[in-house]
Amino acid sequence: MSAAALRPLAGLAAGLVFGLGLVISGMADPAKVLAFLDIAGAWDPSLAFVMGGAIAVALPGFLLLPRRGAPALGGRFELPTARAIDRNLLLGAALFGLGWGIGGFCPGPAFTALTLAAPGTLVFVPAMLAGMWLGHRLRGGRLAGPAAPAR
Amino acid sequence: MPLDPTPFTPWMSLLGGVLIGIASLMVLGLLGRIAGISGITLAAMRPGGDRGWRIGFLLGLVAAPLAWAALGNGAVAQSVPGNLPAMALAGLLVGAGSILGAGCTSGHGVCGLSRLSPRSMVAVPLFMAVAAATVFAIRHLLGGGA
Fold this sequence. Notes:
The complex is a heterodimer of chains A (about 150) and B (about 150). Chain A is an all-alpha fold and about 150 residues long. Chain A has 2 domains: about 1-80, no CATH class; about 85-150, no CATH class. Chain A has helices at about 5-25, 30-35, 45-65, 85-105, 105-110, 120-140. In chain B, helix 2 (about 35-45) packs across helix 3 and helix 5 (about 105-115) crosses helix 6 (about 120-140).
């Protein structure tokens, strides 16, 4: 099998490991996310440990792996290069935080919740996809055409 | 009604976080990309481009709780807010905000902070603060929950 043919399988494997991480950590449970954000209530600080564990592993990797020259399955490293703190970044992060605080879902956990088919999930996910399309339009992007500059 | 309080689970949360870090490095080392869920989702929805691995990644996310249950762990505990209009608004805001801000909890939170990206170092504290303020307003000022 060529390296290019392995790319979808690598994506599947990474998504599975990522999803298991969300499930095991409790991040996939909106109740736990909202309890983490509820500092003035019955605060559950667990999710700080999720971020801590993930960054402890990823930080040295992001430092070392790009020095290898090319990714293992072909192509090249394509990492964001933007550095400007602009209006879109601030407005986007604020809108994201507002939605995250209302629903307790960010995009990854929302996908892991699909098969459990709770009504709130089945409303949230299509709205999120529509919102992504809207966000893309607000950035001036078209739906078809070359890849978006967003990651 | 707000959802019930949840127990403090430092070790399981740390272990899950380590898995998320490993998965992010799989995407980086094998595919050369950022494991940002919002960016992956948008690119997977758009025709053309390098969609194969992205669709695979999303399928992996969707399948993860089934794999967890198949390993003998039983169903995953998830309490999803039941206020459907609020959840529709939340989804719209999360989707639009993540693309406008070029990243969510994974792209800015895990990958961006690990890359020491100055944009992520602004975005993450900002969305955490707004999210915490939102929960405070809903639960302690309005006395409800989604």
